[in-house]
Each structure stands twice: as C-alpha cells, then as structure tokens.
C-alpha cells in the first residue's frame, strides 16, 4: 500500500531527477523523428531523386532505445543504491512507515515516471507523423511498446538487485549477472558437455538450446531491438512477466533483509557462500571452454579450468567478503 505523505516526501526529495528523466524520455523519440526529417530535407535538397522519408525501427542498435534502458537503470540505482550510500534510506526507514510501504512508494513513483513519459512521447510522435507525413512508418507501435516493457523490466531488475545488495557496484553487478543467468545456467554447461561428448553429435541432441522462447528468457537479449522487433508483439509478454517476478523478488528482499550489512555485497549473509560457489563453477566452465577453443585440446581445456577456478575464487572472495566503506 502506498502512503500519500511518503509519496510526497519521495517526490520532493528527488524532484529534479524525476523531472529530468521525464523530460528525457518524453523528448527522445520525437527528437529522433525530427532529426530523421531534417536528414530527409537535406537529401531532398541535394539529391531529390533519392529522397525517401521512411521511418524504420527494425535496424539493430537503436541509440534512443539504449538511452531508455540506461535511464531506467540510473533511476533504480539512484533510488536504492545512491540513497543507501548517502544514508537517506536509513532516514526513510526510520519514519513511521513499513518497509513494504517504502519499497512500493519508490517503485510506484519510478514506474509512473517511466510509463507516463513514454506514453506521452508516443502520442507526440504520432502527432509528428501526421504533420510531417512520412511515406511509411515501420514497426513504430511495436518499438514503443517494447521500449516501455523492456525499460520497465530493467528498472524492476535493478530495483530487485538493490534490495538484495549493500552498495551500488554490487547492485549493478548482480543485475547484470541476472541478465545473462539463463545462459550461464543452461548454455554454458552444455558447451562444456559438448566438448566432453564429441561436440559434432552432442549439440543436436538438445534442440531446446535453439528454442526461441529460451532465447527470449535471457533479459540481455532485449537490448538488441532487432532480436524482438521481427517477432510477434506477444513475445513482449515474457519481459512483462519477468518484470513482475523481479518486483516480487525485490519487495520480498526489501521487507525481509536487514540494512545493518550496508557496504557488504549481499545484505543477507546466507547468500555469500552459495554465490561464491556459483562464481567458481562458472569460472571453471567459462575458462575451460575458452581454453579448449584456444588450444583445441583437452590439455587447454584442463588448464583453462584451473585458471577459471583460481580467478573465480579470487574474484568472488574480494567482491563478496570485502566490505565497502563509505
């Protein structure tokens, strides 16, 4: 449940940030449309026979889409990671509100800023299409819906990571690890089994690895707009469901974990050892595959696994067990 007094406090505390993010998300797509129109006018002036005003959102690597994801991540980091490091979160939790109210208010305010700004951006863009009259507009509705859903997923993921971790770097690293977790849990072990059991025959026995739905369960895939724009719009139900799951995880962690371990990688110390073991395992499997790929022999595979074990242990030890001071 959201308290209006707490909502007002959160808004006034970060008002300039919310307004800046709102304006950026509201203007970024209309600005890109106007920029494309200006390019069209320049071509029309110099090469009239080659001028075609077509707005196509299918090419990969859209800068405006990357900006949307980055802005959603910055907002989530600021609301939990930065506020925790500056002691503002401790002050908020000392107020007469439950932990659930604090998390839901922050989450609600962040989501409203993300969604409202992008919906208004969509309406303004449609108005520009009426005024500028492009010859055709390809995949615009699909692109805008995907931008809204994927930015929401990124925000929910980083908020969940912030509810589990004690400092900003841990929040970002945990969020990034989750974006590639299906690959680490499914594909990486199969790559190693492929080496052990004759790679030419083993891979084809597991068609699941080439399954489209499995690929779209890897959150980092959605950064590449070309990967999902060519698919049905219903594919966006997957990141929508993942967003709800991340919210629930973040809510549970926020109300259950203490804040006394601020500066530690995980606020819940029971996660330290299992995550360290996972990092070592992933290090062994990852470096083992790299060693085999470089040397094309089991000797290179074994050397890579040894290096991966050492790197995984050292990395996990210094990241997880060394407390960050503020």
From TrEMBL:
<feature type="transmembrane region" description="Helical">
    <location>
        <begin position="54"/>
        <end position="78"/>
    </location>
</feature>
<protein>
    <submittedName>
        <fullName>ABC transporter permease</fullName>
    </submittedName>
</protein>
<feature type="transmembrane region" description="Helical">
    <location>
        <begin position="275"/>
        <end position="292"/>
    </location>
</feature>
<keyword id="KW-1133">Transmembrane helix</keyword>
<dbReference type="InterPro" id="IPR023264">
    <property type="entry name" value="ABC_transptr_acetoin_YtrC/YtrD"/>
</dbReference>
<keyword id="KW-0812">Transmembrane</keyword>
<feature type="transmembrane region" description="Helical">
    <location>
        <begin position="298"/>
        <end position="320"/>
    </location>
</feature>
<feature type="transmembrane region" description="Helical">
    <location>
        <begin position="235"/>
        <end position="254"/>
    </location>
</feature>
<feature type="transmembrane region" description="Helical">
    <location>
        <begin position="107"/>
        <end position="131"/>
    </location>
</feature>
<feature type="transmembrane region" description="Helical">
    <location>
        <begin position="143"/>
        <end position="162"/>
    </location>
</feature>
<feature type="transmembrane region" description="Helical">
    <location>
        <begin position="168"/>
        <end position="191"/>
    </location>
</feature>
<feature type="transmembrane region" description="Helical">
    <location>
        <begin position="16"/>
        <end position="34"/>
    </location>
</feature>
<dbReference type="InterPro" id="IPR053046">
    <property type="entry name" value="ABC-5_transporter"/>
</dbReference>
<keyword id="KW-0472">Membrane</keyword>
């Amino acid at each position: 449940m959201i308290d209006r007094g707490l909502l007002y406090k959160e808004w006034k505390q970060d008002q300039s940030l919310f307004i800046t993010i709102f304006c950026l998300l509201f203007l970024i797509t209309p600005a890109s449309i106007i920029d494309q129109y200006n390019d069209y006018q320049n071509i029309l002036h110099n090469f009239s026979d080659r001028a075609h005003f077509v707005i196509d959102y299918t090419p990969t690597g859209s800068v405006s889409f990357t900006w949307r994801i980055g802005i959603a991540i910055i907002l989530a980091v600021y609301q939990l990671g930065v506020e925790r490091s500056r002691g503002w979160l401790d002050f908020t939790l000392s107020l007469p509100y439950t932990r659930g109210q604090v998390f839901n208010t922050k989450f609600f305010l962040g989501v409203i800023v993300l969604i409202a700004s992008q919906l208004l951006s969509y309406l303004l863009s449609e108005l520009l299409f009426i005024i500028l009259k492009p010859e055709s507009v390809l995949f615009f509705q699909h692109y805008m819906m995907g931008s809204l859903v994927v930015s929401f997923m990124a925000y929910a993921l980083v908020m969940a990571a912030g509810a589990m971790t004690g400092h900003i770097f841990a929040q970002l690293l945990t969020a990034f690890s989750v974006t590639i977790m299906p690959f680490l849990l499914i594909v990486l072990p199969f790559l190693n089994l492929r080496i052990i059991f004759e790679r030419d025959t083993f891979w084809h026995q597991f068609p699941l690895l080439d399954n489209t739905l499995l690929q779209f369960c890897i959150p980092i895939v959605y950064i590449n707009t070309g990967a999902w724009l060519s698919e049905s719009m219903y594919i966006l139900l997957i990141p929508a469901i993942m967003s709800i799951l991340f919210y629930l995880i973040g809510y549970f962690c926020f109300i259950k974990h203490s804040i006394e371990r601020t500066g530690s990688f995980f606020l819940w110390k029971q996660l330290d050892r299992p995550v360290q073991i996972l990092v070592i395992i992933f290090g062994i499997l990852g470096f083992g595959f790299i060693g085999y790929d470089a040397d094309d022999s089991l000797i290179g595979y074994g050397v890579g696994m040894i290096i991966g074990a050492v790197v995984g242990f050292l990395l996990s030890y210094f990241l997880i067990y060394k407390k960050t001071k503020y």
